[in-house]
């Protein structure tokens, strides 16, 4: 790999809008991010911030209103049908609910066989590959003969991961795959993913509303607020010195010892309607960073600045940090 190897996944000025006429509204606004080969980018944000829409846009299920997505430096909008089919295989989306990716009528073996070779999906033909992928996610070989409903939630998510990997993707997008699971099962799935990343050098976009979860599996993290990336950077930098008050709020809300009083107050405030975000900095009505909310916040949208490209007029750290 050279320095000019393009990222496996990228978004450039990506804007996605839904609705028609006067009801049309942007859900993602000028998103810039990239995931280089073998890296894992975590994407965090609260419900409605646009995480799933971004995942869907990256795999070509949602069309940009402006900007573009790139796969290995190429825009799917200019691909032929066969290339698009190959793209769908090479970027696997694992959704929160494995039932959305697993056909309940198919045995697990048949589902994996289909990913191995869609044209010759006979599970007997691919028995060794099926066993290999099941073992890769720490499931028994005989899981192949059972249907998805015969598994627990965590096991089902392992099956979904095995199925996604069996397609030999260049990248995996995991969308809230642990959020419906108990803490201990969540930890198991995160360990499986961390192990797979180390063994297979997977390129990954890992989406969650939970910063603690994202930290374990990401080299870098991007924070989404009302359809905008408000901060992104190396995981350790972002966690140890967040520059955006929203990132700080998310970190302070992590349940170890309970949130700080300001975080509690801001977290309790309703998130604004994504269809009609506040002018200026969209976060300003909830911003409780002491002494930092100024008139400018209500009128001017901040540009990304500092080591973590924080979109804040008064970042908490960095050259322009206020007192
Ligand atoms: N097909 C659609 N048509 C219209 N609006 C949509 C559509 N898909 C998503 N939205 C809206 O886009 C916004 C972002 O939704 P999205 O599902 O991407 O958020 P999210 O961060 O993934 O939330 P959650 O964590 O709750 O899934 C929401 O206001 C949602 O109602």
From TrEMBL:
Family annotation (PROSITE patterns): ABC_TRANSPORTER_1 (PS00211), ABC_TRANSPORTER_2 (PS50893)
Nucleotide-binding in keyword set: yes
CDD domains named among the record's database cross-references: ABC_NikE_OppD_transporters
GO biological process: peptide transport; transmembrane transport
Residue ranges of every copy of the ABC transporter domain listed in the record: 9-251
Biased composition (Basic and acidic residues): 265-278
Pfam families, per database record: ABC_tran, oligo_HPY
Keywords, ordered alphabetically: ATP-binding, Nucleotide-binding, Transport
Annotated region described as Disordered, given as residue ranges: 265-285
Source superkingdom: Bacteria
GO molecular function, one term: ATP binding
Entry-linked SUPFAM superfamilies: P-loop containing nucleoside triphosphate hydrolases
Family: Belongs to the ABC transporter superfamily.
PANTHER family xref list: D,D-DIPEPTIDE TRANSPORT ATP-BINDING PROTEIN DDPF-RELATED (PTHR43776:SF7), TRANSPORT ATP-BINDING PROTEIN (PTHR43776)
Name assigned to this protein: Oligopeptide transport ATP-binding protein OppF
